[in-house]
Amino acid sequence: MKTVVGALVALLMSAGAHAAPSTFFADPASGCKVWNPSPQPGETIKWEGRCVDGYAQGDGKLTYVNTDHRSEEVGYWAAGKLVGKYEGRRFDSTGVPQTTIVSGYSAQQSPLQETYRKVTYPEGGYSVDYYVNGTLQGAYRQNATDNHERAAFTVVGGDGAASNRRNVIYLARYNPATKAWSGWPSAADRASKSLDGYALVTGAPGNWNITECETYDSCVAQFDVALKSQGYADWPRARMDSIDAAWEAKKRTYAEAEAAAAAHTKFIATAQADKLFTYGSRQEQEHHYDRALDAYRAIIERFPKSRLIESAASRMAAVQDKVDAQGARADAAQAQAQAQAAAATQRANIDAQRLQMEQQRQEADKQRRLVAYNQCKASADKCTTDCLTTAGAGVIGGIAGLMNRNAVNTNGLQTINQRAQDTCSRCESMSNQCELMKP
User: Fold this and answer.
1) What does UniProt give as the signal peptide span (predicted)?
2) Residue-range domain boundaries for the chain
3) Which residues have CB under 8 Å from 82's CB, separation 6+?
């Protein structure tokens, strides 16, 4: 699979295959061109759908044929590129389909601001990634493996790296004895770390809050409560429904645009000169400069003896100047958008560096506190040992005094006992202070 399904395909492709630069591929049978974002050696395509001006257009199915597999995408294409909602599957060399299904939108090419990519797994779990203008914003995971974990988080930086996740909610595998936890561990990792329980983990890297769960069901209940508290409650379904509704509305505009384009083409080919000039003037006023140019050009080409020839030629030149100015403004806007995107990426990188520095500072502070605590504890333990030794001497002296009152200095024994009590009190106070220092 290609386009937004490229990540899944990369995972399933055989090792050693290298993708060529993105380009348009032509269907050998029809010649219709379709965008291939990651061509593979020896790969061919088959397009089933309409072809407009040589490019795939509208609802259809695109099949990528390779030596050891084929993959299919069913969706909506505009000017040869997949832009609408789609569903993708992969088949092995014998035609057996894989049960993993990818659906969603092309995050890079979609006309929608917000899109999603959903992967449904054989075990019945799924994961959903959300994008805004092609940049990853957050994700939701449910039962994606046999561990039955769940997760929701937002992302800074756009790459989805664990260190860039914020407002995290994990229903994670957990070891109550060691307090260790892991999201999506392999079976071997789960066994080696005895991750037999579950815990709810919230927060962000370097600042985790862990709540042990008595049962998996109780953890699910806590996870659902956390979803609502963090504003994630609509992510699993309602947010996808909203995006799908936006696509259906956009799809109608595509159909309307195609109908308008067909009507325009017919009018340009059949209308008389005066009607063409009126039409061109109206299109110019509405800033449809391409249509205005078509109308004025038709007058010159189809009616060379018309009295409107000079006026049409004059308006063509004026409209072309407007088109050039519009293009310059678009280039400037694109440059500004690119600069803003670069600045946003730089800010995200700085935020990530600051977070890393803060985590390092917290870890260093924790180590310093641990050293101070150990030193304090060692002093308190020594104090306690001395206290017990002194107290022990007092007890022995007391026993000797009971046996032979003439053999002991009673006043001295009382002094020793008092000192031992005072020392023990100081030791206890010191030990309490140490506990306050414990990291």
Assistant:
1) 1-19
2) 1-120, 126-236, 265-358, 363-437
3) 3, 4, 35, 62, 73, 75, 76, 106, 109
